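Before relying on records like the one below, remember that each one covers exactly one chain. Contacts with other chains, cofactors or solvent are not represented anywhere in the record.
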Amino acid sequence: MLTSRPYLARALYEWLLDNEQTPYVVVDAGKPDVRVPQQFVQNGQIVLNIAPAAVRDLSIDNAAVTFGARFSGQPMQVVVPMDALIAIYARENGVGMVFGQEPVMPSFASEEDAALEDEGRPTLESVESRTEEEATKPSESVDETDEDSSNRPGKGKPSLRIVK
């Protein structure tokens, strides 16, 4: 699957603007291909104002956030790859989202690797493939000690029964 980060970033940006907030982004300046003004980087991060009045030609696409801006009077084209985007939030109240690490799904994984990964996961079973006896047999996890309460409707533990 594609990363959800650019979709969430676009949605949050629009939401902040609709609510008359100033959108800021936090960027990991140490990631590859990040182009930000290095003189403003602190602790490996930089906070950038991406409000329409502060930037030119803002683009939040699936690969990166890009825009033109001036820093100390000098024009610069800023490039923030999506994996370097740490957060987007409102300057006025801090409402927004911090992005966590998304799992990387290798596209080159073999069928054997996938089978090993799936080994511990629960599986789905078709109800139609079960025999009539299996379908009507009570589950092994049902407590058999309270037999008289299971015979009364509306009393005892809830259970499901397959009706064909």
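The chain has a mean pLDDT of 79.
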